[in-house]
Amino acid sequence: MEPKGERDHYVSFSSKANGKEDDHTVVELGNIDMQELLEPGDHQTQTYYVNSLSSWEMDTLTALCDTFLPSVDVSDVTPDESVVKFFSTSASMAGTPERVGGVISQRLKHPKKWLLRVALWVLSTWIGSFVLCGRRSLSSQFPYVRRFSLLPRPTREEIVFSLSLSYFYLLRMLFRAMKLLILHVFFTQVDEKNDNLSWKAIGYSGPDPDYKIQTQQLKKLRKINGYGEYELDEEDGGKDELCGPLYRGLINLKIPRNIALDTLRRFGFPVSVMPRKTNKIPSSISYPSLLIKCDAVVIGSGSGGGVVAGVLAKAGYKVLVLEKGNYCARNNLSLLEGPTFDQMYLSGGLVATDDMGMLVLAGSTVGGGSAINWSASIRTPQHVTKEWCDRYELELFDSELYKEAMDVVCEKMGVQSECQNEGFNNAILRRGCEELGYPVKNIPRNSAPDHYCGWCGLGCKDGNKKGTQETWLLDLVNSGNGAILPGCEAIKVLNKRKKGRDRKTASGVAFEFVYEGEKEICVVESKVTVVACGALSTPALLKRSGLKNASIGKNLHLHPVAMSWGYFPDNIWPEEEKKSYEGGIMTAMSTVVANLDGSGYGALIQTPSLHPGTFSMVMPWVSGTDMKKRMCRFSRTAHIFALGRDKGSGTVLSQNSISYQLEPADEENLKKGLEKVLRILAAAGAEEIGTHHSQGKTLNVKKASSHEFERFVEEESSRPLRGLSSPLCSAHQMGSCRMGVDPKKSVVNQMGETWEVEGLFVADTSVFPTALGVNPMVTVQAIAYCTAQSALEVLRRKKCRLR
């Protein structure tokens, strides 16, 4: 009898011929975790982090939670039981403080986290409360000063609101950090039924109602014995739908070691178990457990790494893809905002610049950003390719190869511009522009014209959105020449110096993974190494690998985004059944201020995807009651943003430390964009409009005179965006290892190869010479396609390939 642990990685598919069922055949899937892919598991549940905050810190945190989201009795105002329940439930009643404490303790990686904990402790003392809260903390009774948690709620609300406008930057940081954490956790936490007590009141459905967690294929699936074998009718074509299209190419190193080794060898990768000590590995890498050989190793599976991996594998080379994140199969997506951020976004979606001035979202899953982006597939603008070619002397961007690359990647993703049914936000953007005579056009997307889904930022439930996991990585798997290792984080690119060579040569990579609860290290030996970790993670890996180029990590561009909102009650257009979180996320855009003064710089007008957690994070907070009122308008509040092509830049100090200051010129471009956005919302018929500025001012457009409207637009769009006065966001990061012709000013050459190490390529948005100004997916894939051609030349010169 086989040990059960070595049998639970099989699935059987039965076939039917002439109406008769044949004996089922067992197909080995030892390369993946069937428990994870076939049964609702970690991807559909919320992770609970252990709270290690002290009782003093928790005392302050609980008081802050109930300040931001207090219990308010509105039973005499509305008969709606869901609204009454929402208002009457404070954050502490919902268990939010304990969850926030866990996030701070274990998930939050911001370099200023220690300041947050210091502030929580200081506010738990009488003297600390007096220092930070001033005379509001005074009492007529001994000891004449009250701790923050003992102050009445109205006083606490005054104090917290004053922090948002404080002269002292650190106090504004404290407000921003606590607001983001508390509101995000409260509005995304779910119970055992995957429900949240606020969602009915705010008009949110939770996961897409049309999405069934268990697909029809999964419903037909049944275990047929105690060993965990499964059976499915193959004629129904269920394997891809069941396990995801990449299931045949995934190797999970968490499974029993002998199964993982056999699977790697079956894929054509020589692999050996390393002795406890070996002289073949640099002393800086501690005792690797495995040694794998391949032609090319690609670190990262997003829009850069996925393309390179697919091209090299189709050309016949053995390619190993390392991905720090996990694979989320279609049937195992939750489409829940909280769990998805935790499992598919870098650092759980809790990344911000060091000064908290910019919230940063980046993918961290198989497929990278392409798995959770908003479908926009815009070709590199001509004025950008001209700038990169003329000013930066990069001939690549005027070459036939680059033009071919854009055509190839757009065809691969099925890019098209039609939209059969426009969603809430985009319909408002389009109507407002048409009313004002602003230019507005369709956004090309890598999804079908009838793709009406507002959950794409939480994964694609049906594969309609063609990210790399549906395209280039599928080429890798179908070629039979590649494999993907999820849950594996690269720690160092290995290189060696050959005699007679000035440059070092890349020889592979060391990565770590968790096996039986402990971290282990594995070494991959390769002829070509491709780093595609994204603009935030690639610089740190290159530095850890010994590269000294002064440009590594610098020239970071973030495409800063500033938003405005408009409220459209149910009784006015758009139709009542349309909700702010449904429909294609990006189908319309305006370039009315995108190319100011013919400079190629300005702001693009588009729409975001905001589910309750992110919505609450960016909306102004002026009091607990006001915040809950704003949330009750969630489903009919449209958001439109201005995305700036930033001239200014920042620095990636480490994966969790980003230095970035918005330059005055970029701030002015965003202000001009916000001015247009406010006008667009009003022209489309909004009843009330506002920005995200901390003061939270609003205007009832229907009741305001034209003079009042103009004054409001002028005042709100001219308010400063820097200094934490208004939340700024970034979903595009680029330029931190930029391409160039001068080794003193760039990290890689036009072939994508690093100046310092031969055979080491970079293929992600970090190579962009400047900010792009539009959604970067097509551009990064096109550059990666060109880089793949260069990597192929290197492999051909080295002739011998693995068989």
Structure description:
With 803 residues, the chain is α/β, with parallel strands linked by helices. It contains 25 helices and 29 strands. Strands 13-20-21-22-19-25-26 form a seven-stranded antiparallel sheet, with helices on one face. The N terminus is likely disordered.
Cα separation of the termini: 34 Å
- How is the biggest beta sheet arranged? 7 strands, antiparallel
Give the rounded overall mean pLDDT: 90
- Which blocks of ≥5 consecutive residues have pLDDT under 50? 1-30, 213-217, 222-230
Helix content: 25-40%
Apparent shape: globular
The tally of helices reads 25
Record the strand order, biggest sheet.
Answer: 13-20-21-22-19-25-26
Question: Measured on Cα atoms, how large is the radius of gyration?
Answer: 27 Å
How much of the residues is beta strand, in percent? 15-25%
Please identify the structural class as seen in this structure: alpha/beta
How do you describe this structure in short?
The protein is an alpha/beta fold and 803 residues long.
Supply database-style keywords.
disordered N terminus; about 800 residues; 29 strands; 6-stranded mixed beta sheet; alpha/beta; globular
